[in-house]
């Protein structure tokens, strides 16, 4: 039997974004732009491409710019229409959401990713759901979440996006303990959040895309604080390994950690170079910069 379709997605965006202070004092991290699109737009496009119809944002104080971003902007649109700027009007259309397709839930204290997801429990009800962390941006021919929907339909279990990382990096991630490696899909027998150096069960790290069964919400109901004093989503998923229903999915694509400064800069370069309208000028500038750096060494 095919599992129930995934049509709801949670976007937890209530974190403090401290790694980008002072910018994030007044700008939500998810509004920071790669070339000319905010991080949140990449996540929304990816979710839409995977068949998501309901978009649930878990927000907090100071995130109103994020909410405004999805509203229709009548003055701007009429000015563009009058000026005959149809191409720009088309670009704006991508940012509009159908009435009722988007919901905002408040997380009143940043108690961790697990807690943020749990805040959306009443909107999820008894359905499977996706979770996308917008600061993980994934460049892929077939969008990552759509690849994961296929894996979910194949396994019927919880599917987490996974990628190999260097052993010294495992302590920054949730890490899978592998029961069975089937290639792109991996069955997990455990999952540990931010393992101490030298204790990681593998180097297969979980990144910010999940397809989860409603049981995860039930598990979150009784969760206590885990690593870092936060309520961890990893712990609620790890509870399901006993039932053989947790799978890692090695997605095809390049992930950029835009929650970190280095990752954000790398993504800016990659997305800039991928844009036909910018590529030549940008590449030539980068080449000059590299030549200057080398000359200075
Ligand atoms: P991060 O670990 O990147 O935390 O959260 P952060 O607060 O966004 O950034 P730093 O580390 O202080 O720089 C991963 C994701 O989980 C969300 C964040 O908004 C981000 O999308 N999150 C985290 C919440 O929604 N609530 C929380 O309590 C914690």
Task: Name its key features.
297 residues; Spore Coat Polysaccharide Biosynthesis Protein SpsA, Chain A; 2 domains; 11 helices; binds uridine 5'-triphosphate
Short description:
The chain is an alpha/beta fold. The protein contains eleven helices and 13 strands.
How would you characterize the overall build of this protein?
- This protein has 297 residues and is of the alpha/beta class.
- The protein folds into 2 domains: 8-259, Spore Coat Polysaccharide Biosynthesis Protein SpsA, Chain A (Alpha-Beta Complex), CATH 3.90.550; 260-297, no CATH class.
- Helices cover 34% and strands 24% of the residues.
- It is built from 11 helices and 13 strands.
- A 5-stranded mixed beta barrel has the order 8-11-9-10-12.
- The longest helix is centred in the C-terminal third of the chain and has 18 residues, at 279-296.
- The radius of gyration is 20 Å and the shape is globular.
- The protein starts with 7 loop residues before the first strand and ends with a helix.
- The mean pLDDT is 93.
- The structure holds uridine 5'-triphosphate.
- Uridine 5'-triphosphate binds next to helix 5.
List the helices and strands and how they pair.
Layout lengths: L7 E5 L20 E2 L2 E2 H11 L4 E6 L4 H6 L4 H9 L3 H8 L8 E5 L6 H6 L2 H4 L4 E4 L3 E4 L4 H12 L2 E7 L9 E8 L3 E9 L10 E9 L2 H7 L11 H6 L7 E5 L3 E4 L3 H13 L5 H18 L1
The structure holds uridine 5'-triphosphate.
């Amino acid at each position: 039997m095919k599992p129930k379709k995934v049509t709801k997605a949670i976007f937890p965006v209530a974190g403090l974004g401290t790694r980008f202070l002072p910018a994030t004092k007044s700008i939500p991290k998810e509004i920071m732009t790669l070339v000319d699109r905010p991080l949140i737009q990449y996540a929304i496009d990816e979710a839409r491409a995977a068949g998501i119809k309901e978009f649930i944002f878990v927000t907090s104080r100071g995130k109103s710019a994020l909410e405004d971003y999805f509203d229709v902007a009548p003055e701007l649109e009429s000015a563009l229409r009058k000026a005959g700027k149809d191409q720009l009007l088309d670009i704006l259309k991508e940012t509009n959401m159908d009435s009722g397709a988007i919901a905002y839930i408040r997380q009143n204290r940043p108690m961790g990713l697990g807690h943020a997801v749990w805040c959306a429990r009443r909107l999820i009800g008894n359905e499977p759901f996706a979770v996308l962390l917008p600061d993980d941006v994934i460049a892929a021919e077939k969008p990552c979440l759509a690849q994961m929907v296929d894996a979910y339909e194949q396994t019927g279990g919880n599917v987490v996006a996974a990628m190999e990382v260097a052993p010294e990096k495992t302590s920054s991630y949730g890490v899978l303990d592998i029961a069975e490696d089937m290639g792109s899909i991996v069955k997990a027998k455990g999952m540990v959040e931010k393992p101490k150096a030298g204790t990681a069960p593998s180097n297969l790290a979980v990144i910010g895309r999940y397809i989860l069964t409603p049981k995860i919400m039930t598990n979150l109901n009784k969760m206590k604080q885990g690593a870092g004093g936060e309520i961890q989503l990893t712990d609620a998923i790890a509870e399901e390994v006993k039932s053989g229903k947790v799978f890692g999915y090695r997605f095809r694509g390049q992930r950029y950690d835009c929650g970190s400064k280095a990752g954000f800069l790398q993504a800016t370069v990659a997305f800039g170079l991928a844009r036909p309208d910018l590529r030549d000028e940008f590449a030539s500038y980068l080449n000059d910069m590299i030549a200057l750096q080398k000359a200075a060494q």
